[in-house]
Specification:
41% of the residues lie in helices and 15% in strands. It is of the alpha+beta class. It folds into two domains: 104 residues, Phox-like domain (PX Domain); 306 residues, Transferase(Phosphotransferase) domain 1 (Transferase(Phosphotransferase), domain 1). The strands form three sheets. Strands 4-5-6-8-7 form a five-stranded antiparallel β-sheet. A three-stranded antiparallel β-sheet has the order 1-2-3, sandwiched between helices. A hairpin with a 2-residue loop joins strand 1 and strand 2. Helix 11 runs antiparallel to helix 13 and helix 13 runs antiparallel to helix 15. 36% of the residues are buried. InterPro entries: Kinase-like_dom_sf, PX_dom, PX_dom_sf, SortingNexin/PXDomain-PKLike. One of its GO terms (biological process) is protein targeting to lysosome. It is found in: Cytoplasm. Its main location: cytoplasm.
């Protein structure tokens, strides 16, 4: 997939992948996979994978081995038909589990396994290294790429500046909701505007820029990490994301008063963003840093890249999420749940399971978000005014109620807001239609095996037509 094509992918949309059959080739079993997006699943492609490919994928998803439960190796009798049939079922379960969790199917190694990456991440890394040449004096021996975040197409480059200490260059390509027809200068104007505000709740960056491929920023490395690192008791914030927050680890709850203070500060910030049309929906504990009970949001610059929130899959499931404000509220609910030690994702498919981790006084907040009456979510202001966040000693941020936003910036942000809302509605409709289509679709195993030798990684129209007959 070319660099431009990758930008059309939304990594928060999972695949529907089925192991349709198998064949033996030179003494090795090859499993035959058919794949397509669950959202608008028109395009289908086909793959052939050996058990060793599944094993390597499982090894790359460290921290989730016990959760994924890949079937073990077998050195003798592994071409026995009964054994292969049983292993196929376990491998299918392995794939289904991956596509049940956004932090797994958003991983770049999963992309590579399913043929969605095609060298684009390597191209991005090369681009970041080119950008680094514009930076003055850094030590090559102390610089390297890190995979500390969940988003597979985001590049993080850690380096040691000779004068300014530890730094992180973060860069993200433009995505599916980006302002495709806007000039780079217009997007850069928005970033410059935010920089000029000197907002107290935004984590400072040394520099930020827009280029023809995406947005980048340079900032100091906070050795304490994010709020997520704190609740998960992470000692090395720059470690691999799946290793830091693996299924073998548990997160702890913050003190109740700290949750109220941080939650109120986050809500106040989101109310400000919403008032100026800034569609920051990727709210989670990994995007929050704290210092003396004052919080700072970071990575807000990447909102303009047009990528979906980590919680978008849950948003698609909820018919209550329709607007940017709804998306903010839904993400905030998940963020609040993690502060209570519940985990990264609130179990919206089974809310009663999530309520078990919460104190009684927080129950109504979560129910209003994940089981809203009349299918209507509370507004940000309604959450802010809730008695749960009523803190007598709390002081509001100063100088954020009277910000004068240039009209052209408001207009540009309104376009981005409308684009995100429209695609959410369209994807929800496509997801439903796709579900019906997937249920009806069934390929005959014998024909799939007959044509498997000529099936490329991405099936062409002629091959698809043969297999459908």
């Amino acid at each position: 997939m070319s660099l431009n094509n990758l930008l059309k992918e939304d990594i928060t949309n999972p695949l529907d992948c089925r192991i349709e059959g198998w064949r033996i080739d030179n003494g090795h079993v090859k499993y035959l996979l058919s794949c397509r997006r669950r959202v608008y699943p028109i395009k289908k492609w086909y793959l052939q994978k050996r058990y060793s490919d599944f094993f390597q994928l499982n090894e790359s998803l460290k921290g989730y081995h016990s959760y994924l439960r890949l079937p073990g190796k077998k050195y003798f009798g592994n071409t026995n038909e009964a054994f292969i049939s049983e292993r196929l079922l376990h491998l299918q379960s392995f794939l289904n589990t991956i596509f049940s969790l956004p932090i797994l199917y958003g991983n770049k190694n999963v992309w590579e396994f399913f043929g969605l990456e095609k060298g684009a991440i390597g191209d991005y890394k090369y681009w970041v290294l080119v950008l680094m040449r514009n930076q003055t004096k850094f030590h090559d021996d102390d610089s390297y790429f890190v995979e500390c975040g969940w988003r597979g197409n985001k590049i993080n480059y850690f380096y040691n500046s000779s004068k300014k200490g530890l730094k992180m260059l973060s860069w993200l390509p433009f995505g599916i909701d980006s302002l495709k027809n806007e000039k780079i200068s217009n997007i850069n104007e928005i970033l410059e505007f935010f920089s000029s505000l000197k907002l107290p709740f935004i984590y400072p960056v040394d520099s930020r820029w827009v280029d023809e491929k995406g947005i980048g920023c340079m900032r100091n490395v906070n050795c304490k990490g994010s709020l997520r690192d704190f609740v998960w008791n992470v000692k090395k914030p720059l470690d691999n994301f799946l290793h830091k927050y693996g299924s073998h680890k548990k997160c702890i709850s913050l003190q109740l008063n700290d949750i109220k203070v941080i939650g109120r500060q986050v809500l106040e910030t989101l109310i400000f963003f919403y008032s100026i049309n800034y569609p920051f929906t990727d709210i989670h504990c990994g995007n929050i840093k704290t210092n003396d009970k004052v919080f700072y949001l970071f990575d807000i610059e990447f909102t303009l890249c047009g990528h979906s929130s980590i919680h978008r899959a849950g948003m698609l499931r909820s018919n209550s999420v329709k607007t940017i404000q709804d998306m903010m509220v839904f993400s905030f609910g998940n963020c609040l749940y993690e502060m209570f030690g519940g985990g990264i994702f609130f179990p919206d498919k089974n809310p009663d399971e999530g309520y078990k981790n919460l104190p009684d006084e927080a129950f109504q907040i979560f129910r209003s978000i994940f089981e809203p009456s009349n299918n209507t979510l509370p507004s940000l202001q309604q959450l802010f005014d809730n008695i749960f966040f009523d803190i007598p000693e709390y002081k509001k941020f100063e100088n954020i109620d009277n910000v004068d936003v240039p009209k052209n910036i408001l207009t540009t942000l309104e376009k981005l807001k409308i684009s995100i809302e429209s695609r959410l509605k369209e994807d929800r409709e496509k997801l439903y239609q796709g579900g019906c289509s997937i249920q009806k679709d069934s390929y005959r195993l014998d024909k799939l095996i007959n044509y498997s030798r000529s099936v490329p990684s991405h099936c062409d129209d002629e091959c698809s037509e043969k297999m459908a007959n």
